């Protein structure tokens, strides 16, 4: 088994922006650690891999499959949410790569995505962790060598131009995903090793996206009116949000409380008619009202699937985001990266059952 790839700085930034929000779905302890006292590589108290995330690699694709609430840190806002991402490797997320295995060149491993996020952030900051003084490593191996530098100097280094990502064994044969970078003309080297659990390639069948019915409503989210800001405010007011969508290009976020009801309206959205649930052929009428759908979602889950709007801008790094509503089954948010050939990521959010009399 062999995996080694080179990434440019912008590819590392894209990967960091993508996995950052996904890593917050699980309640892994390392996702919230920030500073000294983190677990060290090989510690007996640390779960190898973990975090509920698997990464699939083959010569053409990189897939990330995560499920919220499966980490070791208890409950989280992402409980019950599934996220699946697929990235193009050749000419996409890697400059060059080599992927080989006995399983038809497929590699599958489990990893704590929060640890990978911390490593990528450190590499982007030139090894200094966003310009802060270097502290103890946080659930990953982090070594660097500087010629006559100080902690403050290391924190302000320019980020490297090329980063190497590979699978290797560390600390007596422990499999790790390693990130190696050279900064400041080679005077500083940054090395990270994140423990992983190697899995059988055929286990990917248990980490594929959930099977769902055809959507009742599909709407493109507006690039100039992010839902994240509204969802954050509604979360502090009510534990549940009603999402009402219409193929007329209308979307409403509603909360109902004692003596008060709050509604936020979005109009002039672009409806997507492909792969949409429709009336049987011969029963369609040009005077039919546009299809509508109402979903009841936990407000914290809605907020969790919109975290990406804090790191990626819709209309720039994300080309399009489509909200798919499946009545009494699922809320799906499908986002295409820009350019679209790079890949996509999709959130699957569970909903509460609504009887007909609960739907206006």
From TrEMBL:
<dbReference type="GO" id="GO:0000723">
    <property type="term" value="P:telomere maintenance"/>
</dbReference>
<dbReference type="GO" id="GO:0035861">
    <property type="term" value="C:site of double-strand break"/>
</dbReference>
<keyword id="KW-0539">Nucleus</keyword>
<feature type="region of interest" description="Disordered">
    <location>
        <begin position="127"/>
        <end position="147"/>
    </location>
</feature>
<dbReference type="GO" id="GO:0030896">
    <property type="term" value="C:checkpoint clamp complex"/>
</dbReference>
<protein>
    <recommendedName>
        <fullName>Checkpoint protein</fullName>
    </recommendedName>
</protein>
<feature type="compositionally biased region" description="Polar residues">
    <location>
        <begin position="136"/>
        <end position="145"/>
    </location>
</feature>
<dbReference type="Pfam" id="PF04005">
    <property type="entry name" value="Hus1"/>
</dbReference>
<dbReference type="GO" id="GO:0005730">
    <property type="term" value="C:nucleolus"/>
</dbReference>
<dbReference type="GO" id="GO:0000724">
    <property type="term" value="P:double-strand break repair via homologous recombination"/>
</dbReference>
<dbReference type="GO" id="GO:0031573">
    <property type="term" value="P:mitotic intra-S DNA damage checkpoint signaling"/>
</dbReference>
<dbReference type="GO" id="GO:0033314">
    <property type="term" value="P:mitotic DNA replication checkpoint signaling"/>
</dbReference>
<dbReference type="GO" id="GO:0044778">
    <property type="term" value="P:meiotic DNA integrity checkpoint signaling"/>
</dbReference>
<dbReference type="GO" id="GO:0006289">
    <property type="term" value="P:nucleotide-excision repair"/>
</dbReference>
<dbReference type="InterPro" id="IPR007150">
    <property type="entry name" value="HUS1/Mec3"/>
</dbReference>
């Amino acid at each position: 088994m062999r995996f080694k790839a080179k990434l440019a700085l912008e590819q590392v930034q894209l990967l960091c922006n993508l996995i950052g929000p996904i890593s917050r779905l699980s309640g892994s302890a390392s996702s919230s650690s920030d500073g000294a006292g983190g677990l060290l590589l090989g510690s007996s108290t640390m779960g190898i891999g973990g975090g509920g995330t698997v990464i699939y690699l083959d010569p053409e694709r990189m897939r990330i499959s995560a499920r919220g609430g499966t980490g070791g840190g208890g409950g989280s806002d992402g409980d019950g949410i599934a996220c699946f991402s697929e990235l193009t490797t050749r000419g996409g997320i890697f400059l060059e790569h080599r992927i080989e295995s006995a399983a038809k060149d497929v590699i599958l491993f489990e990893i704590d995505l929060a640890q990978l996020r911390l490593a990528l952030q450190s590499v982007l900051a030139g090894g200094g962790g966003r310009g802060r003084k270097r502290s103890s490593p946080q659930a990953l191996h982090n070594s660097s060598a500087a010629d006559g530098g100080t902690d403050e100097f290391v924190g302000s280094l320019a980020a490297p131009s090329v980063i190497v990502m590979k699978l290797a064994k560390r600390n007596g044969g422990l499999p790790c995903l390693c990130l190696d970078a050279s900064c400041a003309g080679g005077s500083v080297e940054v090395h990270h090793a994140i423990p992983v659990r190697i899995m059988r390639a055929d286990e990917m069948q248990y980490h594929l996206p959930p099977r769902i019915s055809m959507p009742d409503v599909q709407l493109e989210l507006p690039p100039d009116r992010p839902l994240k800001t509204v969802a954050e405010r509604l979360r502090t007011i009510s534990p549940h949000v009603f999402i009402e969508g219409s193929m007329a290009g209308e979307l409403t976020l509603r909360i109902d409380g004692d003596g008060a009801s709050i509604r936020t309206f979005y109009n002039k959205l672009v409806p997507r008619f492909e792969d949409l649930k429709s009336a049987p052929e011969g029963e369609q009428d040009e005077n039919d009202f546009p299809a509508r759908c109402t979903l009841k979602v936990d407000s914290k889950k809605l907020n969790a699937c919109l975290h990406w709007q804090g790191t990626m801008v819709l209309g720039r790094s994300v080309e399009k985001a489509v909200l798919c509503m499946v009545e009494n089954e699922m809320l799906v948010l499908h986002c295409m990266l820009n350019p679209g050939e790079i890949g996509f990521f999709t959130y699957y959010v569970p909903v509460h059952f609504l009887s007909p009399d609960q739907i206006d």
